Amino acid sequence: MSEKVESTGMDLLKEVANVSGKPGLFRILKPSRAGVIVESLDEKREKTLIGPTARVSVLKDVSIFTDGAEESVALSDVFLKIREVHGEEVTLSVKTSSDKELIEFLAEVLPEFDRSKVYVSDIKKVITWYNLLSKYTPEAFAVAEGETVAEAASEVSAPEEEVQEAPAKKAAKKEKSKA
């Protein structure tokens, strides 16, 4: 990442991806002729070659459907809101929590989420991804001194929504089809 991070580290999400069929998150290292080389975001930091046919979703392009005036909200904005409400870790267990508890969790963070398009499995992914990012890449949540997380989220979301609205919709549709 050669650019200087502006007000938040959420720009790191363009280097982090989910690979369909593989648990966890991966940092994208570099493309190769046979696919893309990634490094797992965990204690092991294993490097793997992901083939060109694998479905790779870059977190910067993922968004969550909403019922409001905007059709979707960027995942980075949702992560910042989770950070504001729940702190560094979401204590809600994705394995033992009921569907109702998971839906209530997302409703607390993003009240306008579209309940017909966002599935419980998607909410579990959001919680899992948030906890992984918070633990292994805490710099993604760094904010400029003297600025609150909410102010950083509003600064980040305003210009991005205009420019990346179409790709965010496509990514959200892809994410929905995967679930």
Topology:
Layout: E1 16-19, E2 26-32, E3 35-40, E4 47-50, E5 56-58, E6 63-65, E7 72-74, H1 75-86, H2 99-109, H3 120-136, H4 149-163, H5 165-178
Antiparallel strand pairs: 1-2, 1-5, 2-3, 3-4, 6-7
Task: Identify the notable features of this structure and list them briefly.
5 helices, disordered N terminus, two-stranded antiparallel sheet, 17% strand, alpha+beta, 179 residues
Distance between the termini: 30 Å
Strand-pairing-aware structural class: alpha+beta
Average pLDDT over all residues: 79
Shape: globular
Largest sheet: 5 strands, antiparallel
Q: Could you explain how this protein is built, in words?
A:
The structure is a single chain. The chain is α+β, with helices and mostly antiparallel strands and 179 residues long. Helices cover 39% and strands 17% of the residues. It is built from five helices and seven strands; from the N terminus they run βββββββααααα. The strands form two sheets. Strands 4-3-2-1-5 form a five-stranded antiparallel β-sheet, covered by helices on one side. α1 (75-86) runs antiparallel to α4 (149-163). The longest helix is centred in the last third of the chain and has 17 residues, at 120-136. It starts with 15 loop residues before the first strand and ends with a helix.
